[in-house]
Amino acid sequence: MTDIALKAPGVPPPSPPPLAAERGKRISAWTRLTANRNWLGLWFMLPAAAFLILFLAYPLALGIWISFTDARIGQSGAFIGLENYEWLSDDSVFWLSVFNTLLYTAVASVVKFAIGLYLALLLNENMPFKALLRAIVLIPFIVPTVLSAIAFWWLFDAQFSIISWSLRHLGLISGNIDFLGDPWNARWSVIFANIWRGIPFVAITLLAGLQTVPPSLFEAATIDGASRWQIFRHVTYPLLTPIIAVVMTFSVLFTFTDFQLIWVLTKGGPVNATQLMATLSYQRAIIAGHLGEGAAISSAMIPFLLGAILISWFGLQRRKWQQGESND
Amino acid sequence: MITDLTRRALVKGATATAAAGALAGPALLAWAKAWAQSAPWKPEKNAQLAMLRWKYFVQAEDDAFVALLDAFTKATGVKVIVTRESYEDVTPKASVAANTGAGPDLFWGLYSLPHLFPQKCIDVTDVADYLGKKYGPWAPSAVTYGKSGNKWIDIPVCYTGSLINYRISTLKKAGFSKFPATTDEFLEYAKATKANGTPGGLALGHASGDANTWVYWCLWAFGGNMVDKNDKVILNSPETEKALTWAKQLYDNMIPGVASWNDASNNKAFLAGEIHWTNNGISIYAAARHDPTKTDIADDMDHAYFPIGPVGKPTELHLMFPLLAMTHTKYPQACKALMAFMLEANQFNPWIEAAAGYLTPGLAAYDANPVWTSDPKRTPYRDVAKRSLTVGGLGSVGEKAASAVSDFVLVDMFASYCTGREEAKNAIKIAERQLQRIYR
After folding, report:
1. Interface size between A and B, measured as CB pairs under 8 A
2. What are B30-56's pLDDT values in tens digits?
């Protein structure tokens, strides 16, 4: 092979005849492109870069561009600068959707984390039917979102809710609970459904993290007389923080951009009480045909998402391995 | 032999069958072949069509529709692949197809869907004129929905009436001999039914059909309007406030939970005996009639037009299902041939009968179909095309009106006031602001 990196240094090759020198130059350029480590790195990176540019960067950039236009369905639209954003800044429904999204994300993420961590710790213990129990915990995550949303739709139905029916027959309430017709009831109902669906992801991922903690550390702590809380606080939790950072980043992103659950359950109602930024964007862009305005709502989600990612990475995670060093 | 039908025989047959029903089986196929030979639209070679339609509410309607398509395929060689979606989902899918220039050739959607992207719909003026001359005239609202400027951009295939469905025994118990004819009487009736423990309900969630139709009716019944004839927003008016005030009183006497209702909610509740009046197509009655355990409900229910408000004339809005062909289709002639074929009497009459009152044509000749008189409870649905106003109200029925109805501007205005989320003036202001942007 003509790998120039392998040639012995300091031995000048004999001067080739002019024609051969020309050929040598050509071979050398081709060789550089195919054998040089830097060029090779570029070639190997290209498919991934092309994939990311085509399916992530381009749609994102296009969405941001459309948000600066008055594009409608079927019409490309003209550049209107920040007009869509100015309109949204004074739109009470948009701000309501921002509030709903933040409430939905914050409450659901915190509860999912708390219950998920608790479940992970439980499932990490030695118990009979451990494998079966772990499989059962995954069920809400396995069921397609739309199916579970339809199930919740029946559970929360204004007339046919099994919850209302049971409570009425137990004599605890006199009329049906208006789960999805009352604004606050509807908010808590959709948050509950999201929590139910999201817990397995958090629990199983944290369980995987717990499995990587060396048992010798627990044994050492136990011998030192640490209580169960102290073991959790000073051994388990610090070792889990890298995986918590990853899990919570994904959990927050999934919750913030949730669409299916809300759309099937309430379509953003009643009176926009459960309208999230994602559903409002779809409502305005696709249902009502105002692509520019819908794209502006989607683009307005980006700072929130970036903020969530930054908080997760720099707030929850301050370990040295992030900077490429080993942990203390 | 039927297979030797001539053009003259075809015309005669069509006229005769327009009122009397239809051919079936081999006769239908023979007729279809003869029609294909004489029709002005010759499908392109190897044409194949894809259609996305709203998902049927009455199974028999879809069966008749499939039989119709089979006959079309056998007669013309054009295969038609049909996909069915909830009618709320047809609009976004058609919108995406219009934007990307790819997808089904034909979309059969709701209200003024074609007016969201009129430039993406093929001109079907020749088909509309052909059908109008043969079976017309078209109902005024059908003309408004079908035309963009001077050309037809869709064929207004049929309507589904949004009429009051009510239980007869409950009506009598509330002290009424017939369904209230005015909004004042309607309110009294609602109060009485609630007091008797037999309340009703009208959807105030994002229900494309049930919620939009009743709130538009209510606004117009009190003289309110979204826009004037020049599409200038005039929503903020004392009439709109009166409509809201009345609607709030009605809401207070409905069953709880209507703010979360979608289009299926009132059907479920009515058939379960939970509500005793609502607005709907004939699907509740059809379902009750076909379910042996619900015969008592079918026998005890009837249909009525919406009451008349202070404006003194009917102000109903009924669902209209327009069929459009996209400009990206490779087979425009096949699309037009199918549109015309569907509405020919031989196909359309059995189809209407199978729908049992769920489909009301916009063409006058089909008023003679026996489906409207064989069961008197269906009769009110016969006239919904003639009675219906359009989603544009006083204004145009273009993409702006389509946007307003798709975005539930009026539904949210009514819901936010009725549920106590906003004061009337504020609810109107929010809706007015949205409309001003849509109609800019």
Report:
1. 114
2. 777 888 888 889 999 999 999 999 988
- Contact between A300 and A88 under an 8 Å Cβ cutoff? The reply is yes
Instruction: Determine whether the interchain pair B268/A159 forms a contact, defined as Cβ–Cβ distance below 8 Å.
Output: yes
Q: Where are the domains of chain B?
A: 7-158+321-387, 163-317+407-438
pTM: 0.81
Residues of A in contact with B272 (CB under 8 A): 159-160
Minimum-distance CB partner of B406 among A158, A272, A289: A289
Integer Cα distance of B440 and B437 in angstroms = 5
* Mean pLDDT, chain A, integer: 84
Please state, in angstroms and rounded to a whole number, the distance separating the CA atoms of residues A143 and B108: 32
Pick from B142, B204, B156: nearest CA to B390:
B142
Q: Is A289 on the interface with B (CB under 8 A)?
A: yes
Selection from B201, B384, B357, B379 nearest residue B282 by Cα: B357
Pair B106, B47: CB distance under 8 Å: no
pLDDT digits (tens, 9 = 90+) for B95-145: 889 888 999 999 999 878 898 888 999 999 999 999 999 998 999 999 999
Domain covering B7-158+321-387, topology: D-Maltodextrin-Binding Protein; domain 2 (3.40.190)
Paired tokens of B122: 């093929």
Domain spanning B163-317+407-438, CATH architecture = 3-Layer(aba) Sandwich (3.40)
Once rounded to an integer, what is the mean pLDDT over residues B290-299? 94
What ranges do the domains of chain A cover?
2-66, 83-323
Across chain B, what does the average pLDDT equal? 90
Contact A158 B119 (CB under 8 A): no
Q: What is the CATH number of domain A83-323?
A: 1.10.3720.10
pLDDT digits (tens, 9 = 90+) for A18-37: 555 555 555 677 777 777 88
B159 in Cβ contact with B384 (< 8 Å): yes
Q: Comparing B7-158+321-387 with B163-317+407-438, is the CATH topology the same?
A: yes
Look at residue A135 in the predicted model and tell me its pLDDT: 82
The ipTM (two decimal places) reads 0.75
**Yes or no, beta carbons of A181 and B117 under 8 Å apart:** no
Determine contact: A134 vs chain B, CB below 8 A.
no
